[in-house]
User: What shape does this take?
Amino acid sequence: MFFKDKHCPTCGGSGTQVFTPLKPEERKALGTHRTDLWRCTAAGCRWYQPWGHQAGGGRLPEELQNPGADASV
Assistant: This one.
């Protein structure tokens, strides 16, 4: 079974967030052609990771922050 909900290590809490595949411009910003990277869709989050695990994840550049972000975060 395939679930889009994953725990995001930067969003905190015990709940899950919806993840979506990285868009081409996001992969370009990271300098990768990998298609197995997904990002958290929570407002203000920049976390991405391979689908199967958090290891190998990181943060996208500031300009790729999700809409609705608090400038102080």
